[in-house]
Amino acid sequence: MRLPAFPVEGGCQCRAVRYQITTPPLEVHNCHCRDCQRSSGGTHTMSMPTTRELVVLLQGELVGYDKVADSGRVVRMMGCARCGTKVWNQPLSSATMLVVKPGTLDDMSWAVPVGNIWTASKVPWVAIDESLVNFPGQPPGRQPLFDAWNRAVAAG
After folding, report:
1. Whole-angstrom Cα distance, residue 103 to residue 117?
2. Residues with Cβ within 8 Å of residue 139, at least 6 apart in sequence
């Protein structure tokens, strides 16, 4: 997978919120949990974990709400105060991490998922690529996804 030149930018639907990511993310994956299905109105969401200090809010106001995820962990969902677009999550169990929503990137063509989580609750007609790093529920750790991302980036 070929990465773009960093920094890259993104923002919300109404363009009131703009942000910048200064270096590549740690990985990109799909989540098929019921919470993500409900919040996206679709079959899954995409998630792009990165280190919090590498994301810069350039403009706009984010508002959040805390929700208990299917894993039992509390996640702060951050979205545009104006249009409500979910821009990123702040896992309260990991103070140094943000999980950016790749669909808010100006160009998400490079943000190819390397795995899937919560596949046990996927919609029955969704096909999961078995060659990716997949978990039926919450993975015990993120390292397998980080490693898969690093392999994909190294392969070009």
Report:
1. 18
2. 117, 145
Nearest Cα neighbor of 88 from 10, 8, 148, 6 is: 10
DSSP state of 105: B
Question: Is 29 strand, coil or helix?
Answer: strand
Q: Give dist(CA 95, CA 26) in Å, integer.
A: 15
Q: In angstroms, rounded to a whole number, what is the distance separating the alpha carbons of residues 16 and 97?
A: 23
pLDDT in tens, 77-95: 999 999 999 999 998 988 8
Helices (H), the chain: 34-40, 143-155
Instruction: Report whether the peptide linkage leading into residue 25 is cis, meaning its omega lies within 30 degrees of zero.
Output: no
